[in-house]
Amino acid sequence: MTSDQPTNQTRKVRCCIVGGGPAGMMLGYLLGRAGIEVVVLEKHADFFRDFRGDTVHPSTLQVMDELGLIDGFLKLPHQRLQKMDGLFGGTPVRIADLSRLRTKYPFIAFMPQWDFLNFLREAGEGFASLEVMMSTEAVDLIRRGETIAGVRAKTPDGILDIKADLTIACDGRHSTVRERAGLSVEEVGAPMDVLWFRAGRNADETENVFARVEPGKMMITFDRGDYWQCAYVIAKGQHEAVKARGLQALLDDVVRMAPILKGGIADVKSFDDVKLLTVAINRLTRWTRPGLLCIGDAAHAMSPVGGVGVNLAVQDAVATANLLADKLQHGCPSEDELDAVRRRREFPVKMTQRMQRVVQNNIISGALYGGGQPLKVPLIVRLITALPWLQGIPARLIALGVRPEHVQSKAAARS
């Protein structure tokens, strides 16, 4: 579909955000709060999709507090994690202890992402300048010369042209907007993929082990109240080989590594219950075109290491509102002003990806590609386990990240 095809519907807004994930919904809320006329496009009819990032870190909890939303937010069902323990070749290790952080919310909240996004949507309903359009998919860009002037969207009522002073791509690692804009992606690389599944959990089942690493295998388990959410890490490109071995072979490996799952593993009835997450680490070298900005996964895909993706997306949204909300009152910022977002956020992104690669190359690759050799606990992990005061360092990197953002954009006066 090209942008010169006829259409029956047109509307004009100051800002069009494509994608209703954490970056898009948080930015929509912040711009609506600032009185900017903004529309958020979400291609699905609801936010209910399983196996998405469900870890809300202290950096995001602090943002919710700064927006006055934290009390209602923490009333939503969630679980809290402070200490991250693991088994490395059978040896107990301590990965991080968030209770050592001097922060108002020293824990990770495990919450279904659809609850987080629905909460933001409902909180933003009081802003007359904000509209969230569900079942609305951006399929092309509208151009005015070299400038991006909005998007063409497919809606239940037909094709809609949304003309916007500024278009912001928040449509994920497979961004349609990014592709249509011709922005190139720099691949950083990841040695693994992840199989996600759920196993039932009885009320009396408790265990603090977060990560298990064995020769050729790695697994993460999250206590989600009435079920265990599990991530079985496999070597890159080995999904078909795992399937060829058969479901029972996979489940036998899972139960052997994590006996706590034995009672609920029957919930996994076929490979339809096992979802493949193809892991990628990449980033744009250029985040902008005139009239266009990419943030969140559309600008930088993160590894699941540390569970930081949702929170980096939120940080991008906060930085974008801080830098651009006032300027948007008067029209589209210049491309140099849009690029200020990249200049602000690129360092935290690169540092986080670098740390993820250190973990991948020194721990995950050693486990997955070590030829079945016995595992030795890496020196840094031994030090962190033996010296409790060191446990606050990885905790801070996971919980708060590099250079966390704080809300500075102003709220418009309410009539």
Q: How would you describe what is shown here?
A:
With 415 residues, the chain is α+β, with helices and mostly antiparallel strands. Helix content is 31%, strand content 28%. The chain has helices at 22-33, 58-66, 70-73, 113-123, 176-181, 239-245, 247-257, 309-328, 335-368, 379-386, 392-399, and strands spanning 9-18, 38-41, 55-56, 79-81, 83-88, 91-97, 108-110, 130-133, 137-144, 147-155, 158-169, 185-187, 192-200, 209-214, 217-223, 227-235, 275-277, 282-284, 288-289, 292-294, 300-301. The strands form four sheets. Strands 1, 2, 8, 9, 10, 11, 19 and 20 form an eight-stranded mixed beta sheet that branches. Strand 5 and strand 6 form a beta hairpin. The two termini are 42 Å apart. The model has no long low-confidence stretch (mean pLDDT 91).
- Class of secondary structure makeup: alpha+beta
Distance between the termini: 42 Å
Cα shape: globular
Low-pLDDT windows of residues: none
- The CATH architecture classification of the largest domain is 3-Layer(bba) Sandwich
**Largest sheet: number of strands, sense, barrel closure:** 8 strands, mixed
What's the CATH superfamily of the largest domain, by name? FAD/NAD(P)-binding domain
